[in-house]
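Notes from the 1:1 (GR / supervisor)

We went over the backlog. Supervisor wanted to see one worked example end to end before approving the batch request, so GR pasted a single chain during the call. The sequence is below; no edits were made to it. Supervisor asked that the structure be written out right there so they could see what the output format looks like.
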Amino acid sequence: MASPLPLVRPSDEPLRLQAAPRQRLPSRLPAAMLVRGLAVIAGLGMPVAAARLADLVHPAPAVSPAR
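Structure output shown during the call:
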């Protein structure tokens, strides 16, 4: 039968446990794409909303039919 390995380290350095490899965080790309898409939609809708509000505040005069 083989003799068991010694439990003492040959060096004076204390035993250090290595940390487990960190798991990669999920990519933030989908969230960034969602925010960018919402910003684009809001940016495109802004002129439409501004024109609608301008029409409500200052409606165009009714045009009378030509005689």
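Supervisor's comment: Residues 11 and 30 are 50 Å apart (CA to CA).
Batch request approved.
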